[in-house]
Amino acid sequence: MSEKGKQALLLLGSPHAWGGTSAALGLYLLDQLSGHGIAAEKLAAQAALSAAGRDDLLRAVEAADIIILSFPLYVDSLPASLIAALESLAAAKERNWTAKQLVCLVNCGFPEAEQCRPALAICRRFAVETGMRPADGLAFGMGGILGGKQLDEMGGMMKNARAALEMSAAALSRGEDIPAAAVALMAKTPIPNWLYTAVGNYSWKALAKKNGVAVKLKDRPYCQG
Asked: pLDDT under 50 in the chain at which residues?
C-alpha cells in the first residue's frame, strides 16, 4: 500500500532542459509515482543558480519526501549546474532530512551502464552528507537512443527501462529502496552493442561531413613527438 500524502521532487540536472533523455526518464518515474498517489513537482537545476531559484529549490526539497536526481553523465560525474544546486542544498544551515529518500537516474552515451557507477557513488555521498537516505539509483546506457522522444514512444525498445521505473515507483511509494531487479533491468542495453556503435560512428561521420571537418577526424593536435 502506498503512503498517501507523500510528495516527490524531480530535480533535472540536464542542460537540455525538458527535451532530453534525463527528462524522459525522470518524468516517467514521476508519472508512475503520481499513479501511486504521490504528489509530484519538478525543477531544473539550472533554475536554481540564482538566489530566487535556490530559495525555490530549498522550499521544494523541504516539502518533498522523495528527491529524484535525473541527469546525464559528464566526465564520470554530474553536470556543473546540478553540482551547484546540490552544493547549495548542502550549505543549508538548518535541515532535518533523515526521512527523505534520494533517488538517482543517470544516463550516459556509452553502451555500458556501469560507466555511471562513479556518479551514483557521488550521489550516495551527497545523501549521507545531508542526512538523506540513499534509495539507490538506476543507470541507463545508450542514452542517446531516445533522441528526444518519450519512453512510451519507443515501443519494445524501452520495455526494460519502463519496467524498471514502474517497479521502482511501486517500491518508493511504499517507502522502500529501489529493488535490485529494477537496477538490473535498467542496465540492460536496448539494442546490441555493435549496432549502437555502428549507428554512432555513422552519425559522427555524417555530422563531421556536414560541418566540413570530415578530413580532420583523426587529427591529434595535442600529440607530442
From this structure: 1-2
**Beta strand ranges found along 13-97 (DSSP E):** 39-44, 66-72
pTM: 0.89
- Residues 132/97, Cβ–Cβ less than 8 Å: yes
pLDDT tens, residue by residue, 41-82: 999 999 888 889 899 999 999 999 999 999 999 999 999 999
Supply 93's cell numbers: 544551515
Tell me how far apart the alpha carbons of residues 80 and 139 are, in angstroms, rounded to a whole number: 19
- Could you tell me which residues are beta bridge partners of residue 138? 105
- 179 contacts 168 by C-beta, under 8 angstroms: yes
135, β-bridge pairs: none
C-alpha cell recorded at residue 119 = 556518479
CA 97 to chain centre: 21
Which amino acid is present at 88? S
Strand order in the sheet with 101-107: 39-44, 7-12, 66-72, 101-107, 133-140
CATH code: domain 7-191 is 3.40.50.360
Residues of the chain with CATH 3.40.50.360: 7-191
CB 150 within 8 A of CB 29: no
